Amino acid sequence: MERVREHLIGVLVALLPSILFSQSPATVPGRSAEHYAGIVTEVELRQHLEVLASDAYQGRDTGKEGQKMAARYIREHFISSGIPPIENAPKGTVVEGYYQPFELIEEISGSISITHKETELLFLKELLYFNESIKEDRSVKELVYLGDGSSIGDVQGAVGKVGLVKEPGTKDPMALMGALRKLGESAKGTGVDVLLVTTDRMEELVEKVGHYVSGSRMRLPVKGEAMEGGGGMQMILVSQDAMDDLLGKKPMRKLTRKKVGSTVMVDFVIRAKASANKVLSENVLGFIEGSDKKDELIVITAHYDHIGVENGEVYNGADDDGSGTVAIMMIAKAFAEAKKAGDGPRRSVLVMPVSGEEKGLLGSRYYSEHPIFPLENTVANLNIDMIGRTDSAHNGANPYVYIIGSDRLSSDLHVINEQANESSTKLVLDYTFNDRKDPNRFYYRSDHYNFARKGVPAIFYFSGVHEDYHQPSDTVDKIQYDLLHQRALLVFHTAWLLANTEERIVVDGDVE
Ligand SMILES: [Zn+2]
Question: Which domain does 224 fall in, by range?
Answer without folding.
Answer: 110-274
